[in-house]
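Intended use. Records like the one below are meant for learning the mapping from a protein sequence to its folded structure. Do not use them to infer anything beyond what is encoded.
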Amino acid sequence: MQFASPYFLWLLAVIPLMVVYYVWRTRQGGASIQVSTIDGVAEAPRTVRYYLRHLPFALRCAAVALLIVALARPQSVDEGSTSNTEGIDIVLAIDISTSMLAQDLQPDRIQAAKQVAGNFIADRPGDRIGLVAFAGEAFTQSPLTTDQGTLQTLLGRLRSGVVEDGTAIGNGLATAINRLRESDATSMPMERSACATWLPQAPLVCVPSMKRISMPKARPAAKETSTPESEFHDSTTNSTATV
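Structure written out for the chain above:
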């Protein structure tokens, strides 16, 4: 928080002066009616009004302080920063057919796949990752995004039985590749392509985008050396050919 007119805050020094004056006036105040003795009322019970006798002054001090702060014009400033990061586009294709309910992996295959995928997403904070689920059909659960919280939430919602049963892995890979083709990321120096990687820990296919590829330097072509025919001998004579 900052103040547009911070010099008005110097007026807050008036508050201690008001307190000092109030205390001095309270102690210096004399009785308005002179009586011979107050012994008869000294033991009288004190009401709430007695304990709240200083409340009006406290409210006046608070009002003056708030007025001074308002004159200083407090402002809240949101500062943003822009950072550039490099990453790759990855689409995870996950099988959600009923075969994923098998318990050869604990607690079952689909939960194991979701756990592996969740760890994979958490380990790649700079990449855009999408989710594709497939069984008898394939659909996009999440487009390419860097929002890992949303990805983890959508990943946790995957379950079997939401589409026709089957294992159309080809449709799943095709859908994943189409999501990569729709990416607005620049591919260099090759046109964006995709390759599928099977993660052995669970039935899960990772389809990364080949958008940042360093092309190997071309090797210099070997010079062709022509050899006179006289240097070649017939193989039947068990001699070698010199090149």
